[in-house]
Amino acid sequence: MRYQISGKQIDIGEALQTHVKDELGAAVAKYAERPTDAHVIFSKNASEFVCEAIVHLSTGLTAQASAKAHEIYAAFDGCREKMEKQLRRYKRRLKDHHRDRSEPVELSGASSYILASESEGAESEPESLQPIIVAEMETKIPSLSVGEAVMQMELAGAPVLVFRKEGNDGLNVVYRRDDGNIGWIDP
């Protein structure tokens, strides 16, 4: 597995990098047979250290977790435990998808925009109907089955996932409903 370990405005020493590679590698290898790469980012927020980890699996699925603590090693250990819990929870489903899927998930490109929220009250009239674009990025839309899309959404901790249903050209959406169930939009 390839590792990219970095710090946002903090130094990451060799001892921490070795600890991350050993511990995260062991945790992920226990539950996922073929991880491809891992990105671990450390940052500091006031008096707490924040650790964010993203692990890409060979099937195209992505697991991510984050944790905060007053010590950097404790932040990583909390993050690793959350990652391990996610992968343990979905181990059976991941194994089933590994057997069914011999090739990685097909990804197609798309644009992703972040729109500015209204800073004024909701009752005021907007100046124009054009939203203010804060950021524009490129994103990938995976080609998945509905079950894989739900699993990917839950592994990523996202409220919604846009995907292309395998064997179908149209875009589909799965989302977490207010009642706790999963909604699926199939146009």
From TrEMBL:
Keywords: Cytoplasm, Translation regulation. It comes from the Bacteria. The lineage of its organism: Bacteria, Pseudomonadati, Pseudomonadota, Alphaproteobacteria, Rhodobacterales. CDD domains: RaiA (cd00552). GO terms for molecular function: ribosomal small subunit binding. Residues 130-183 form the Sigma 54 modulation/S30EA ribosomal protein C-terminal domain. Interacts with 100S ribosomes. Associates exclusively with 100S ribosomes, which are dimers of 70S ribosomes. Its main location: cytoplasm. One of its GO terms (cellular component) is cytosolic small ribosomal subunit. This is Ribosome hibernation promoting factor. Pfam families: Ribosom_S30AE_C (PF16321), Ribosomal_S30AE (PF02482).
